[in-house]
Backbone:
């Protein structure tokens, strides 16, 4: 589900340039992925400044270890998303644990639940981001614009049964955000450094 | 009976997504819910899809703080110094194009067609040309193309670029606008952004020195580092034009970048002054003898206040002369943004808010020369 305009060739070339230590490549990497990284971090941590910090950490990690990304494992976009997810969840857990130790607030179970919820939310954002455009368009109309499936079908110029199919399939894909053994598991690809 | 319920099961199952989103009729919802009572498969899926709806979330339309880019990149480069850095003189261009791109990313289709008036100063008068937001980006693409061509990259104008009589910024822009049958749309963003990235990438390989090619602008030429500063300045000026047209806030460049842009303008002033004098637009040189190149000459002290500001001594009688405090005949004080508006042709020289003491003719000449730095 690579995004349009990001062919695997671009990913391979970017990795090469980063390994070579080209600062201009780092700028291009930021321009392409900063809003994804910042958005996911914000979804997990719910805080602007914390998301800024995670963004700094993620790009620093990629810049220092560009060869950790293996293009054969999948698109750079998914890899960046997994990495962000992992670092943001780690942060959520460590700040939660620190708060417990400091003022005895909350239980480990409550923290685990929070981590699990934040994880699922971030995975869901990523899934929505990467959904095929027709499914995303149908969900957008039905959920955000409050159109029923008949109106959605009319808006998209598709038969009503096709609109029903897209809404159901879109939600089925989205529901996989809940599927995880441990809340730290990144979406899609593992192996983020 | 059995057959009918199989059909029903099939139809109702297909409705589960719409049901979970409350995007079906009341009657359909009731039918689905009745069916769920007796069908474990569907009930399980219905629960799952309802939970999925809970994960839908309007993307926080968080505008990334434009200042974050510099922080993130600087932090990275400190931890691992680059083997191929972006030259210092290209940093302003890198930052300004990223800022403008962030502004463009959030704009709706219709905003791309918002009217924009490009303003500059020609000879003694303010002049302007009407276009749209997309037209401004096409303008930046065309003129940045001068640097691209000088570096051996593709000309965004293609053959039309070669056909323009003189490759001035205005001629190239008009050629680009003419060459397309339709007014530019938001689709111009991608080629513009790809070219800006290609420029930063390519100049990184020419190194920090000034060994690169000079960039011909038709009527004059600039060394590559100055051309990149000039393009950064233009990018900012036009980003402001766009931001005003669509009513978005837009701040000034980082102080160190602003300083580089002001410094370039200050360095170009003596040459522009001489050209205006040749054209009879500025008062004649006052030196009793021609000032020998490299010698101190009659000077104006240009003081720019605020972040990114500083002081410059502008030699008045010859571009070859050296600014000199001993030969100072006038002193002008402007704040940074006001000076940039003047140099961009957005404010008339006689309306520029400037503190001034000394030779009034010298002051007038320098303010007009600053305005003449502007072009389409």
Residues:
């Amino acid at each position: 589900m690579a995004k349009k305009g990001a062919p695997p060739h671009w990913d391979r070339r970017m990795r090469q340039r980063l390994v070579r230590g080209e600062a201009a490549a780092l700028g291009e990497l930021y321009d392409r992925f900063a809003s994804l990284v910042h958005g996911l971090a914000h979804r997990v941590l719910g805080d602007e400044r914390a998301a800024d910090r995670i963004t700094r950490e993620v790009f620093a990690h990629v810049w220092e270890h560009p060869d950790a990304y293996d293009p054969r494992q999948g698109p750079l976009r998914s890899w960046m998303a997994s990495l962000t997810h992992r670092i943001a969840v780690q942060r959520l857990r460590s700040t939660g644990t620190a708060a417990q130790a400091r003022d005895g607030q909350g239980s480990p179970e409550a923290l685990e639940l929070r981590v699990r919820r934040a994880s699922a939310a971030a995975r869901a954002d990523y899934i929505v981001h990467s959904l095929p455009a027709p499914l995303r368009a149908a969900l957008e109309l039905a959920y955000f614009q409050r159109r029923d499936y008949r109106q959605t079908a009319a808006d998209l110029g598709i038969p009503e049964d096709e609109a029903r199919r897209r809404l159901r399939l879109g939600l089925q894909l989205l529901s996989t955000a809940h599927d995880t053994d441990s809340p730290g598991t990144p979406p899609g690809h593992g192996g983020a450094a | 009976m059995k057959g009918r319920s199989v059909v029903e099961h099939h139809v109702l199952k297909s409705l589960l997504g719409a049901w979970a989103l409350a995007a079906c009729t009341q009657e359909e919802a009731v039918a689905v819910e009745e069916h769920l009572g007796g069908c474990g498969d569907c009930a399980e899926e219905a629960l799952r899809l309802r939970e999925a709806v809970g994960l839908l979330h309007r993307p926080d339309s968080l505008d990334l703080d434009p200042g974050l880019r510099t922080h993130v990149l600087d932090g990275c480069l400190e931890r691992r110094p680059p083997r191929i850095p972006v030259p210092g003189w290209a940093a302003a261009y890198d930052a300004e194009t990223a800022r403008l791109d962030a502004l463009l990313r959030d704009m709706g289709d219709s905003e791309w067609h918002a009217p924009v008036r490009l303003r500059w100063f020609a000879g003694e008068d303010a002049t302007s040309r009407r276009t749209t937001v997309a037209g401004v980006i096409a303008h930046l693409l065309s003129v940045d193309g001068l640097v691209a061509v000088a570096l051996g990259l593709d000309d965004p104008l293609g053959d039309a670029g070669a056909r323009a009589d003189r490759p001035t910024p205005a001629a190239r822009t008009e050629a680009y606008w003419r060459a397309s049958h339709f007014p530019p749309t938001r689709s111009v963003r991608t080629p513009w952004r790809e070219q800006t990235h290609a420029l930063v990438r390519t100049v990184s390989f020419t190194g920090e020195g000034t060994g690169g090619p000079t960039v011909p602008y038709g009527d004059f030429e600039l060394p590559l580092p100055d051309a990149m500063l000039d393009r950064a300045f233009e990018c900012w000026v036009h980003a402001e034009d766009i931001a005003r047209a669509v009513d978005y806030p837009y701040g000034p460049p980082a102080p160190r970048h602003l300083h580089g842009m002001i410094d370039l303008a200050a360095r170009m002033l003596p040459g522009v002054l001489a050209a205006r004098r040749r054209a009879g637009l500025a008062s004649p040189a006052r030196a009793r003898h021609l000032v020998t190149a490299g010698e101190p000459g009659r000077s104006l002290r240009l003081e720019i206040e605020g972040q990114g500001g500083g002081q410059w001594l502008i030699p008045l009688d010859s571009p070859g002369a050296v600014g000199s405090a001993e030969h100072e005949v006038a002193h002008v004080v402007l704040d940074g943004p006001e000076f940039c508006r003047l140099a961009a042709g957005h404010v008339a020289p006689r309306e520029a808010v400037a503190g001034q003491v000394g030779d009034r003719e010298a002051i007038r000449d320098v303010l007009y020369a600053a305005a003449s730095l502007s072009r389409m």
Remarks:
- The domain at 1-130 of chain A is CATH 1.10.1740.10 (Rna Polymerase Sigma Factor; Chain: A).
- Chain A touches chain B through 54 residues (CB under 8 Å).
